[in-house]
Amino acid sequence: MLSLQEKWRELDRLNNAVLAINFYNFETLSSILKAAKRKQLPVIIQATRKTIQYLGLDVTLGLAKSARKQYEVDAWLHLDHATDLDLIRQCIKGGFDSVMIDASEQPYRENIETTEKVVEMAKPHRVNVEAELGYVAKMGQSREKIRFTQPDEAKIFVEQTGVDALAVAIGSAHGFYDKEPRLDLELLGQIHDATPAALVLHGGSGIPPRQLKKAIKKGIRKINVATEIKNKFIGSLKSELQHTDDIDLRNIFPEAIKEVQHLIEDKLDIVARENS
Length: 276
Ligand SMILES: [Zn+2]
Known about the structure:
The protein has eleven helices and eight strands. The chain is an alpha/beta fold and 276 residues long. It has a single domain, classed as Aldolase class I (TIM Barrel). The chain has an eight-stranded parallel beta barrel with strand order 1-2-3-4-5-6-7-8, surrounded by nine helices. Helix 3 crosses helix 4 and helix 5 runs parallel beside helix 6. The protein is globular. The mean pLDDT is 95. Bound molecules: zinc ion.
């Protein structure tokens, strides 16, 4: 398996992206890996702090590593949206391939300083570092005062911090959208021209495939999908439980796993080579 940093360079040449999907338990992880295997595409498997708290760090690591081996899929393990440097340190030491430091809500200077600290921690371990510049609304946060990433700020930010990947604010948001989002593709193109960092689009759930493909052409290298995974998994369980008295969870979960797998297979078509 290439390092993620090597993968970015390959994707730059191909002008393509990799899908990054959050997992929450064995079931959602196996949905992701089965879809990747079926489509013969690599993926990034992401865990947040909450997932690590839920599973425990050792289980998160062990599960991810043994599952990607079992399914024979290239899958980089990434820490999504971390703000806590201790957690980041533990994940780097434990063997994560990639970490995200999200200091995007801090002022620009402090964001640079915090991100620099993480790059310093990660470098000796060759762990990929993603930071966020600008402001992508979190679930439940106001979408009114979204601050888009500015190309000149992105250029300086990447030069000063040495990050490998940069999450940009160009009109996406976390969670569900009330109306179809419109990405600022012109701005994205300018950011891509200004910096060599792999650009990341958060809030990929609910953005139409057509827009995602255009965003890839303009320089997006990683597309994050989380909300839709939870929504599909729980939705499937709810409807299934309505018409069964079966208590055997090994009979109940596979349908939800399959539905999430199909959702991810459709998403993976966005980055499949024949479509790029
Ligand atoms: Zn995100």
